[in-house]
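Q: How would the structure tokens look for this protein?
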Amino acid sequence: MLVNYIKKFGIILPTAVVYLDQEEHTFGKAIDGHLEIKGRFFKNVLKRYEIDLVRYEQDNDTEELLTSSSVYCSRECLPNKKDILPFVLNVPENIKEYPDRYTYKIVVRFVWEDSQILLKKHPLVFQV
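A: Here is the predicted structure in token form.
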């Protein structure tokens, strides 16, 4: 019973890190990378993960979803075990870089059993 109570607060959720193959990216080209998840104290089951490319406009504090990818699964994440999830995210050609106006980031949402959510954000740099 104590485990279920602790799980509700997300204290024992696995940890996650976003890794990209390149530091700078090009509009119209794919972004390659992988997600590394590591179990903590108890077994958890990953039900879904979503990877979003988001553009943030600094002037009016708004975000725009440019592209998204969702993977439905039932992947066990065991205590102290690492798992690698590779991904490719396509970047639309029709977006333009305005360095003083927009910033870009990847937002990854991990949805675990019992609808617990772990959110990770990673900034992106595009070649101008």
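The beta strands are 15-20, 24-25, 30-38, 44-57, 62-77, 82-90, 102-112, 117-126.

DSSP finds one helix and eight strands in the chain.

Upvote if useful.
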